[in-house]
Write a structure and sequence with these properties.
disordered N terminus, 5-stranded mixed β-sheet, alpha/beta, single chain, 8-stranded mixed β-sheet
Length: about 950
C-alpha cells in the first residue's frame, strides 16, 4: 500500500516545560512558549587532526565547508530545554559532562534538560580518544566553551514562539549497508576466529545476498516560528550515517552542513531574523545515505520546508524530561585474545598483522583496561504528543523502529550519539552475523546483551514521561498452539462427529478462518515457513537446516524475544520433537527461545502388545534406520529413547500424562504459573504431536467414538485427469508394521485408522483445555492472544491415499483460529489467508514493530473484523524431485496448479484446474478442456504475478 508524501501530520498541542529530575512525577501547568537559537563556528585550526577513516585520520586543511554547533532552546515560564547538535563524529561522555556542568554554572539550566548530540561527520576533529587516534586536548577545551556559548546564545535569544512538528518518508536517501554474503565467501574477522556472515561496506558487491536489516525512512521536523509566521529555527532528525563525499583530506560537515545551509536559505532567514536549521542523526548505525552529501542535504532541506508548510503551530504544550543511567558490561578480551594482541604488539606472533588488524590489536589492549561496566545515559523528552529519545550509541535502524513502535506516544523519534558516546549497538542477532560494527573494540565495547536492555529502559523512560492518556498498553502474551497433521475436522468447522469442545471454545472467543492454507504440505518446510515468515523457495524447503541457508533471519519467537518477551518451546513447534529421534536431523533453533525447549520422550507405545512389537522392531538388524544404533542387550527399554515405528495405532488404558503430549502440557502449565508470578510477558509455543501417526491416545478417548458411526470416506477414488505428479504413495503410513507394503488399506482397517485419528484429536483437545483453564484461573486470558494452527491438512483414505504430501485442498487447507483480547469473538472469516501471514499478523496484534523481510501479509485487521475480504489468493507448492515442482494457487473459485521445472518456469510438465463451485472435492481436472484454454492462460499469468509479488523486496 503506497504512502502519501507526508505520512504523519500531528500538532504539538502547547508548550510548558516539565522541569523534572529523574524521579519527578509532578505536572506543570501549560504556559505560553518562547524559543531561541544559537550557532557557533567550531572549525578547527590547521594543526588539529580529523577523525577520518578507521585506523587513522587526516589533517584539518583544506576547509571544504565550516563546522558549527547549533542549538534550539524552548522555554515555558521559568523552565527551559535545549536541543543541541555539533558537526563532529562523536562527543566523549566525559567531555559531554563538562559541557553540562559549564552550561549549568552559566545559565542555571538543569543538567538533564540539555541534549547534546553529534552529527557523525568523519571530516571533523577528534573529540573522543578512540581507535582513530588521540583526541586533541586543546580543541576539546575549546569545544566545551563553544557548545556552552551556543546554548547561552539560544537562551539569550528567546522570543515568543509557536511550535509544531511533522514528518515525511524519504526512502530514496537511505539504504542498509550491512549485507549477508554468499556461503563460502565470508571473510575472517581481525581476530582470526569464526568468519563473519555479514559485511559492512561496499554494498552488495558480487557476493552480497541481501541486506540484513531494515531502514527507517521517516524524516522528522520540529519547527519553531514567531507569531507572525516567520521561522526561528528547526530541529530535524533522519536515520542515515555520514556520506564521506568530500574528496581528499579536509574539513566538512557532510550532508548535515548542506542541509542546514540549504534549509536556512529556503526559509528566508535575515540578519535581523536569522533561521538556524539543525539536523540530528537518527538510528543509523547500519544505514548509509542513498546519494552524495550535496544531493542528500539539498533533498532533505526541500522536504523540511514542505513539511513545515503543513504544520499547524501552537503556542502551548506540556514538556516532560526523564533521564537515567544504565550500568552495562564491557566486552573485555579473554585470555586467548589478550595473548594474541600482546604477541602481535611485542613482535612475537607467528606472522605480522596487517595495518587494519593492528587497529584491533590496540583496541584489544585498550578494552582490557576498561572497567567491567560503564554508565550509559538515556534521556526522554516529551513535547506534547511528540517524544524524543536520546541514546549515546550508534544504534541500528531496527532498534529505532522497535522503540517507535512500542512507544506510548504515537509520534517518536530517536537521536543517537547523544549525551556521550558508547559505540555501536548491534542487536544480539546482528552480533551473531558479525561484521565491522560488531567487532569488540572501543567503537563497539558493550556486551552482546546490551541492546535489549537499552531498548527496554528507553521504553520505560518514554512511558514515565507519558500521561495516562498515552500510556503504553499492556504487552499481550501469546499462547501459540501447533497441532501436527490436523485437518479441519473439528466441531467448530462443522464436523459434528468430532468431539473438540476446547478448540471450539477458542473459536467462540476469537475468529475461525475457513480458508487458511499452508505453504507446503509437509512438516518441516511448512513450520519453517510459518516461523520465518518466508516461503519455501526462500530457504530451499527440504533438507538443510534453515539457518544454513538464511542465517540472518529473525524468526517469529525470536522477534518477540527481541522485544522483551520470554519465549519457550514445548514439543513440536519447529520440526522434530525429540533429541535422538532424527539422529541429528533436527530443525530446532535455540536462538529463538529464552531457555532451552522442552522435549519429551519419543516413546510411542504403552500397551503390552505395543511394547512387545516396538522391542522387536528396535532389535531388527535389518531395519534401515535403527540398525546403526548400538544396541544394549541388558537394557530392554532402550527402544524408548528412539523413534520406533511399530503398530499404526494403539489405545492404552493409561492416564493422559503418561503420553508425551500429556507430559508436555504439564510442563507448559508449570511454566505459565511461574511466568504469572514473575509478571513477564510471554510467547509460549506448545506443539502437540497427535494426531500424527501412529494414532495413539488413551483408551478413554477411543471410547468417545463408535467406529460404526464414523462417516465414510467421501471421495475414495483418484481425481479424474489428475497427473501422476499430483499423487503420493503415502509411504509415511506404510512404514508401520500392520500396514500392507503394497495395495490399498482394507475397509476395516480404514475405519480403525479413522477411529484412531478422531481419538487423537479429542485427546489433544483435552490437553488444550487444561491450558485454557489455567489461563482463566490465573486471570491471564484477558491479556493473552491464543492462536491454534496445524502445519498442513491430511488424507484419511481420500483419493485412495493417506497422509499429506500433495497440493490438493485436503492437504493444503488447515485449521486456523485466532483469539485476541478486545477483538472479534465468535467470528468466521472466508478470507483467503496463509500460514506465512501469521508472523506479521501476531506482530501487529501484539503491537510489535513490523518484522523485516517477511513475505506474508498481516491479516490482523480481519481478526478485528471477520467480514473483511483480505488477500485474493493463497499460494502453496510441492516438489516431486529436483526438476518438478507443483506451484498451486487457490482463488475464491479455483484451485490451479502448474507442475514446472523450479529452475526454469517455462518448462511446464502438467496443469491442474478444479472449479470449487461445481467440484469442491477436486475430483475432475478441467485444465485440458478446450473451453478453458483462455481461463488457464489467465490463471497462469495471475499465478506468476502473485508469486513474484510475494517475494517483493527480498532477493532470492
Amino acid at each position: 500500500m503506497g504512502k502519501s508524501i507526508i505520512r504523519k501530520f500531528t500538532v504539538l498541542l502547547s508548550l510548558g516545560l516539565y522541569v523534572l529530575l529523574a524521579d519527578s512525577k509532578a505536572a506543570e501547568s501549560e504556559v505560553a512558549l518562547s524559543a531561541g537559537t544559537g550557532i557557533v563556528d567550531i572549525t578547527p585550526d590547521p594543526d588539529v587532526p580529523l577523525s577520518g577513516p578507521i585506523g587513522g585520520g587526516g589533517k584539518s586543511l583544506p576547509v571544504h565547508d565550516r563546522l558549527f554547533v547549533r542549538a534550539m532552546a524552548i522555554k515555558s515560564g521559568d523552565n527551559s530545554v535545549v536541543l543541541c547538535t555539533a558537526d563532529l563524529t562523536m562527543i566523549d561522555s566525559k567531555l559531554h559532562d563538562r559541557i553540562r556542568d559549564l552550561v549549568h554554572q552559566q545559565t542555571g539550566l538543569p543538567k538533564n534538560h540539555l541534549l547534546v548530540s553529534a552529527t557523525h561527520t568523519h571530516n571533523a576533529p577528534r573529540a573522543t580518544p578512540l581507535e582513530l587516534g588521540s583526541a586533541h586536548e586543546q580543541y576539546q577545551d575549546s569545544l566545551v566553551k563553544w557548545v556552552t556559548e551556543a546554548v547561552v546564545e539560544a537562551l539569550t535569544n528567546l522570543e515568543p514562539a509557536r511550535i509544531g512538528w511533522g514528518s515525511v518518508d524519504k526512502p530514496e536517501y537511505c539504504r542498509n549497508r550491512r549485507w549477508l554474503v554468499k556461503p563460502g565467501t565470508q571473510q575472517p574477522n581481525p581476530f582470526g576466529g569464526k568468519k563473519d556472515l555479514a559485511k559492512m561496506y561496499g554494498g552488495p558487491g558480487k557476493n552480497g545476498v541481501r541486506p540484513v536489516g531494515p531502514t527507517d525512512p521517516e524524516f522528522f521536523v520540529l519547527s519553531a516560528q514567531r507569531p507572525d509566521g516567520s521561522q526561528i529555527g528547526l530541529f530535524a532528525n533522519f536515520s542515515i550515517h555520514y556520506g564521506s563525499g568530500v574528496k581528499g583530506e579536509g574539513v566538512s560537515a557532510d550532508y548535515f552542513g548542506y542541509f542546514s545551509r540549504e534549509a536556512e536559505s529556503l526559509l528566508g532567514g535575515t540578519k535581523e531574523k536569522p533561521v538556524v536549521s539543525i539536523i540530528s542523526n537518527g538510528t543509523s548505525g547500519d544505514i548509509a545515505p542513498g546519494g552524495n552529501p550535496a544531493k542528500v542535504g539539498k533533498g532533505l532541506a526541500e522536504a523540511a520546508v514542505a513539511v513545515i508548510k503543513t504544520i499547524k503551530h501552537l503556542d502551548r504544550l506540556p514538556i516532560t524530561v526523564q533521564e537515567n543511567e544504565l550500568s552495562l558490561k564491557v566486552r573485555r578480551p579473554d585470555k586467548k585474545r589478550l595473548a594474541w594482541a600482546q604477541a602481535v604488539k611485542d613482535g612475537t606472533a607467528k606472522k605480522p598483522a596487517p595495518h587494519w588488524q593492528n587497529v584491533y590489536v590496540r583496541n584489544t589492549l585498550w578494552l582490557n583496561d576498561y572497567p567491567e561496566k560503564v554508565p550509559v545515559r538515556l534521556q526522554a523528552i516529551r513535547l506534547g504528543d511528540l517524544a524524543i529519545m536520546a541514546l549515546p550509541c550508534e544504534v541500528y535502524a531496527e532498534t529505532g523502529l522497535a522503540i517507535k513502535a512500542r512507544s506510548p506516544f504515537a509520534n517518536t523519534f530517536v537521536v543517537e550519539l547523544a549525551n556521550g558516546y558508547r559505540g555501536y549497538l548491534p542487536t544480539p542477532n546482528q552480533h551473531r552475523l558479525g561484521g565491522y560494527t560488531t567487532w569488540p573494540a572501543v567503537s563497539s565495547p558493550l556486551a552482546v546483551d546490551s541492546e535489549p536492555k537499552i531498548r527496554e529502559e528507553a521504553l520505560r523512560l518514554l512511558n514515565s514521561v507519558a500521561d495516562q492518556q498515552v500510556e503504553r498498553p499492556v504487552m499481550k502474551n501469546v499462547l501459540f498452539i501447533a497441532v501436527d497433521d490436523l485437518r479441519p475436522d473439528l466441531g467448530c468447522y462443522g464436523s459434528d462427529y468430532i468431539k473438540s469442545p476446547n478448540i471450539d471454545s477458542i473459536a467462540k472467543s476469537g475468529v475461525l478462518f475457513n480458508r487458511a492454507y499452508c505453504q507446503r504440505a509437509i512438516c518441516m518446510p511448512s513450520r519453517t515457513s510459518l516461523m520465518t515468515g518466508l516461503r519455501p523457495d526462500s530457504f530451499d524447503g527440504l533438507g538443510a537446516h534453515f539457518r544454513r541457508l538464511i542465517p540472518d533471519v529473525t524468526t517469529l519467537p525470536q522477534h518477540f524475544k527481541n522485544n522483551g518477551y520470554f519465549t519457550q518451546s514445548f514439543g513440536k513447534v519447529y520440526h522434530g520433537s525429540w533429541e535422538k529421534a532424527y539422529d541429528g536431523n533436527s530443525y530446532q533453533d535455540p536462538i529463538s527461545w529464552s531457555v532451552p525447549r522442552w522435549t519429551g520422550s519419543p516413546q510411542y507405545y504403552f500397551s503390552p502388545e505395543g511394547i512387545r512389537k516396538a522391542q522387536e522392531v528396535f532389535a531388527d538388524p535389518n531395519h534401515k534406520r535403527l540398525a546403526k544404533i548400538k544396541k544394549d542387550p541388558d537394557n530392554p527399554d532402550q527402544w524408548k529413547d528412539y523413534f520406533v515405528q511399530g503398530p499404526s495405532m494403539e489405545a492404552p488404558d493409561v492416564a493422559d500424562d503418561i503420553l508425551t503430549d500429556g507430559k508436555m502440557t504439564q510442563a507448559a502449565l508449570t511454566r505459565i504459573r511461574k511466568l504469572k508470578k514473575e509478571g513477564k510477558p510471554f510467547f509460549l509455543g506448545v506443539g502437540y504431536m497427535k494426531p500424527h501417526l501412529p494414532f495413539i491416545a488413551p483408551k478413554r478417548y477411543w471410547d468417545l467414538y463408535d467406529p460404526a458411526k464414523l462417516p465414510p470416506v467421501l471421495h475414495p477414488d483418484r481425481p479424474e485427469g489428475a497427473p501422476g505428479f499430483a499423487m503420493t504413495g503415502w509411504g509415511e503410513l506404510r512404514v508401520y508394521t500392520d500396514i500392507p507394503n503394497k495395495g490399498p488399506v482394507s475397509e476395516e482397517q480404514t475405519r480403525q485408522l479413522r477411529h484412531g485419528y478422531a481419538a487423537c484429536i479429542s485427546y489433544v483437545d483435552a490437553q488444550i483445555g487444561l491450558l485454557l483453564d489455567e489461563l482463566d484461573r490465573l486471570d491471564l486470558r484477558k491479556d493473552t492472544i491464543v492462536v491454534l494452527w496445524s502445519d498442513h491438512g491430511y488424507k484419511l483414505g481420500d483419493y485412495g491415499m493417506w497422509c499429506k504430501h500433495t497440493n490438493f485442498e485436503l492437504d493444503t487447507r488447515v485449521p486456523l483460529i485466532v483469539s485476541a483480547p478486545g477483538l472479534a469473538t465468535g467470528g468466521k472469516s472466508n478470507a483467503l489467508v496463509e500460514l506465512v501471514d501469521l508472523y506479521p499478523t501476531l506482530s501487529d496484534l501484539a503491537g510489535l514493530p513490523k518484522p523485516f523481510g517477511t513475505e506474508g501479509e498481516s491479516f490482523a485487521a480481519i481478526v478485528g473484523d471477520p467480514s473483511l475480504i483480505g488477500e485474493s489468493v493463497a499460494l502453496s507448492q510441492y516438489p516431486r524431485g529436483p526438476t518438478v515442482t507443483g506451484y498451486s494457487m487457490r482463488t475464491d473459485r479455483y484451485r490451479f496448479t502448474i507442475w514446472r521445472n523450479p529452475e526454469d518456469h517455462s518448462k511446464v510438465h502438467a496443469v491442474e484446474l478444479y472449479d470449487h463451485r461445481s467440484d469442491p472435492g477436486e475430483m475432475i481436472n478441467i485444465a485440458t478442456d478446450e473451453g478453458n484454454k483462455d481461463l488457464v492462460e489467465q490463471l497462469t499469468q495471475r499465478l506468476d504475478a502473485e508469486w513474484e509479488k510475494s517475494f517483493a523486496g527480498r532477493s532470492r
